[in-house]
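I am still getting used to C-alpha cells and would like to learn alongside you. To get us started, please write out a protein record for me. Once you have written the record down, we can walk along the chain together.
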Amino acid sequence: ESRVEADWVALREQTLPFFEVLADTTPPTLEVQNPTQLGNLIIIQGTTEPGVTITVNGEAVDVAGDGTFRKAVTLNRVGQNTILIRATDPAGNKAEVRKQVFVEVD
C-alpha cells in the first residue's frame, strides 16, 4: 500500500461532522380581517409573513414588504359565498382562512 493510498484510506475513514438539515414544515402566519362588503364588492385584507404568496379565490394578491395585503373581490353569486384566502411560503407550506359573506340582490 503506497503512502497516498494509506492517507486516502485514513481520510475516508474519518467521521465527518453530522449536519442535520431541518426542513421548514411550519405553515406561514395568516391573519385576515372580517371582509368589508359594498354590495357584491368584497374587500379582503390581512397580514402574513414577508415573502409569502397570497391568493384570494385562486387570484394572486400583492403582498407588501411588511406582509400586509389587500384585495377587492367581486362576487356575482347571490346568497352565501365562501372566500378562500391561502398563504404559501417559499418552502411550500400552506395556511388557509375561509370567510363567509352574504350577497343580496339590489
In short: The longest strand covers residues 79-88.
